[in-house]
Amino acid sequence: MIKRRKNPVEMIHTEPNLCSTDLRLHILHGVPFFASLEHTKIEEINQQIHEKGFKPGDYLYFAGDPADSLFIIAEGRVKLLRHTTAGKDVMLDLLIPGEFFGGLSTSSSSTYLETAQALTSVCALSISREGFRTILNQHPAVGIQVLDLVAARLEAAHDTIHQLSAQTAEQRIAATLLMLAAKLGEPHEVGLLIQTPLSRDELAEMTATTPETASRVISQFQRDGWIATGRKWIALIRLEELLQTAEMKV
Amino acid sequence: MIKRRKNPVEMIHTEPNLCSTDLRLHILHGVPFFASLEHTKIEEINQQIHEKGFKPGDYLYFAGDPADSLFIIAEGRVKLLRHTTAGKDVMLDLLIPGEFFGGLSTSSSSTYLETAQALTSVCALSISREGFRTILNQHPAVGIQVLDLVAARLEAAHDTIHQLSAQTAEQRIAATLLMLAAKLGEPHEVGLLIQTPLSRDELAEMTATTPETASRVISQFQRDGWIATGRKWIALIRLEELLQTAEMKV
DNA sequence: CGGTAGTTTGAACTACGTCAAGGGTCGTGG
DNA sequence: CCACGACCCTTGACGTAGTTCAAACTACCG
Known about the structure:
alpha+beta; four-stranded antiparallel β-sheet; 12 strands; homodimer; 2 domains; Arc Repressor Mutant, subunit A; DNA-binding
């Protein structure tokens, strides 16, 4: 059996007041939907933006809070989730720097429908709903970019629904690992490392199963030599086999 | 036991070439995201629109086809679905007049990711992706409307994921019936009638279960006097109890 | 080096899927 | 208008993937 190793996931250390103006501008330029704007315009937008740091496990907001801000991640990982009466959470998305979330539309609900929680130290930029609306009104190209991004997320959500409807826990877990690797994967001596802390519990929240079942499947994958894993980390080794397992339609 | 009745769902008879110019303009005015435009502008847009009729069971397009058009329903019901290798379909949405679907964004996949099938006779309006892009560029307000609608669908998809992850088949079916009634419900002597033909098979496709399980749950609801049902129709009687059943979160 | 949080594994249980047979409803054609 | 056939729905019996409960084990942190 493969010997377990120390956690290779790189820690993200974000001090409370890290986001320097330079970093903020850098992030804003990098954000897909502001990319089309001129530098001066972005500096103007920068004036409307607030920043805030969070520690791992901190909640950025809870479902039901008044949805007055749109967030953009500058650094760290954030998960979007819903709570269940039974206390079991459902993870809907895992976001990385450059991605946005929170109060997007004016017309829809005035409270957040999901909870946002930091998985690592996080630096988040935020802008008021109204401020964001103003930008959308002044820059149609930004609106189209945002539309495309939201449409892509809708497709991803439909993928998930499809998986939950038609696939086994093993298939969903394999598919989720591949998806995570595509988004967060970093080459590493132990394999293609999923660069975020991720417990069996959280993997279960993503795949609509229990921590026990996630553990059993992960253990089997490890026994097969398809992955390397440890406490809160997973690295993929045999992508081909995982794909084969997940496949029967993503 | 409640005696079963003849199908009270009103047939939609759409002749191949039904969409008169008047009806088209009427629909276009009614469509939420064109509502903000002036009449002359809508007539201009009307020039770019093609119409097509479909019979029940017809496919408007298949997943994998080149996604060159955006559709708007003028009349009828359309279901969006994905196919499974096992031949079991997964229904992702059920659309009514005024709703749009198809090739929405330019940046995302150039082929349709879902299949669209007519549940009834359907009259659909279509516009090319490029044509729609042009409208978006010229009318920022339209883009924002569309963004809000897509964001609302994303929320709905997240609701579904939540349900599939955390609820029993009975709860999901109760929730789905209530959702359908909110969208398609019409007061009727037999109860709040879900105004579309819907088989146990299709209900199963919507709730990630099998026709047999859907039938068992529906039969139980009927025995309890919560609904009235028959071949391809369902009417709700005791909303309160259904809500109670579904509840434990959406 | 001890404690906490995360992980693994086993054994019993259950909601649901599968397979199969029978019955009701509707449309069509005589 | 009736009768036949196709399609849809129902119900039962059985199998199983996955949950639940519980206990032991291990990585990591202070």
